[in-house]
Amino acid sequence: MAGHELDRAFAALADGTRRDIVSRLTLGDATVGELAAPYDVSLQAISKHIRVLEVAGLVSVTADAQRRRVHLEAAALAGLVRWIERHQRAAEARLSRLEAVLADLDSPTSPNTTPTKGKTS
Question: Which residues are 61's β-sheet partners?
């Protein structure tokens, strides 16, 4: 996924209503009316949310007689997941390196630790 596509997708998912719509679409395609049902907003408002998701490439809309059916584009979500997983692996590797350094510093045989001198009586 190119940078501008990631920007649009993450910006689209920054809104809770749009995240809810994506979640609902994981169950299957739905009409705009079906997607609007749980919300106390107009069909026009839901249509605007769907349009943002469509421009971001996360959903596609097809006309079916009198209705518009909305379909989740799983490949677009897969691109987001790949981006997140790549950065997660890098962060986990960095954390593992830090843990190894800290463990080495705590080790009594570490060259970075100085032996404590015992008290004499």
Answer: 70
User: Contact at 8 Å (CB) between 50 and 35?
Assistant: yes
pLDDT digits (tens, 9 = 90+) for 45-96: 999 999 999 999 999 999 988 889 999 999 889 889 888 898 788 788 888 7
- Sheet order of strands, 30-31 included: 30-31, 67-72, 59-64
Q: What does the pLDDT read at residue 22?
A: 97
**Joined tokens for residue 16:** 């809770």
CB 13 within 8 A of CB 19: yes
pTM above 0.70, yes or no: yes
* Domain 1-107 coded CATH 3.10.20.310: no
Length of the chain: 121
DSSP-assigned letters across all residues of 19-65? HHHHHHHTT--EEHHHHHTTSSS-HHHHHHHHHHHHHTTSEEEEEET
